[in-house]
Amino acid sequence: MDGPLGVQLDLERLCPVLSDVPIEVTRPLYQLLSSERVHHRKLRAHLAERERHLAYMNSGMREIDAMPGVEFERYIAARYRADGWTVRHTPASGDYGVDLIATKDGELDLAIQCKRQAKPVGVSAIQQVVAGGMHYGCARTMVTSNQEFTPAARNLAATHNCQLIGRAELLETIWIDSPGTDG
Prior knowledge:
This protein is of the alpha/beta class. It is 45% helix and 15% strand.
């Protein structure tokens, strides 16, 4: 079965790999594999999601630049989840300029707009995420992009304390601190 980003998922080859893992960890997995077909489909979906997550974590700028906008949002969400954040996607339309809402330690905290595009990001992205962040009750806002930001966008972001993650920072490990710290 081909998964997202062309990752091949082969459950028959997965079981022998799991033989070196302690039985306490693998027992639930084996039970799912041997139970009814519905569980098998759920396991496939779960494993495909893990494979997609791993592929995102290994993406370089060339892969990121080739991603459609929705996939770029999933990439950003995967990066936050890897750092312990809970992330939810807003509706595709009527999102008030916010693509993702990231929560850590139980706080509704960070409104994120994702911009995967071919030119520098302008002020409208900052205006949208700041307004949308207020609508969703978020304490902080951020715009992430595979490109850099115009000088006017940087000025407006500074005025509203909106964090900008551009091309130079995109592949760094940590973008923002936990809630309650200066990020």
